[in-house]
Amino acid sequence: MLYAVLCYNTEDVTSAWTKEQDDKVMRDLTAVQRKYVEAGKLGPVARLLPTTAATTLRHRPGETVVIDGPFAETKEQLLGFYLIDCASLDEALEFARELSAANPAAGSYEIRPLSLYKPGELAP
Fold first, then answer.
1. Which residues cross the membrane (predicted)?
2. What stretch of H or E contains 58?
3. Do 62 and 43 meet the contact criterion of CB atoms below 8 Å apart?
4. What are 107-110's contacts with CB under 8 Å, separation 24+?
5. What's the pLDDT at 59?
6. How many Å apart are CA 11 and CA 75, to the nearest integer?
7. Is beta strand 55-60 parallel, antiparallel or unpaired with respect to 42-47?
8. What is the pLDDT of residue 124?
């Protein structure tokens, strides 16, 4: 089963890291990823730029509006995601626990099963 592991944290915290702190976190996360890559379980990984770089398109019947950034009043922002192929939710949770242990900032990881749709193919 494919799972999306969505990484949330407070941008104010992570953007305040020095280059050295950020590099260390990325090295530690890469170490966690390595065993999943070697097992052929880890798919794409994306680190999102800050929400200040985002644009949102909102559609309502008869109206489409484009605004800067996301429009959400949350304490945590989506900072990135992993796609991982796991035999069970427990395995996906273990991956998220390892990521959490490698990350010094308090945050959260949402684990969500997903269906993969490929362009040009009918949905299952």
1. none
2. strand 55-60
3. no
4. 107/7, 107/8, 107/9, 107/10, 107/76, 107/79, 108/8, 108/9, 108/76, 109/5, 109/6, 109/7, 109/8, 110/4, 110/5, 110/6, 110/8
5. 87
6. 9
7. unpaired
8. 61
Question: Residues near 123 by Cβ (< 8 Å), separated by ≥ 6?
Answer: 115, 117
Q: How many CB atoms lie within 10 A of CB 92?
A: 24
- Token pair, residue 84, equals 């991982």
Question: Phi and psi (nearest 5°) for 54?
Answer: -85, 160
Residue in this structure with the two tokens 């069970």, named with its chain if needed: 88
Q: Which residue has the tokens 């945050």?
A: 107
Q: CA-CA distance, 70 to 64, in Å (whole number)?
A: 15
Instruction: Report the chain (124 residues): mean pLDDT per 10 consecutive residues.
Output: 92 90 93 94 92 87 85 78 95 94 86 86 68
The confidence score (pLDDT) of residue 74 equals: 72
Full-model pTM: 0.83
Tell whether domain 2-113 is in CATH 3.30.70.1060: yes
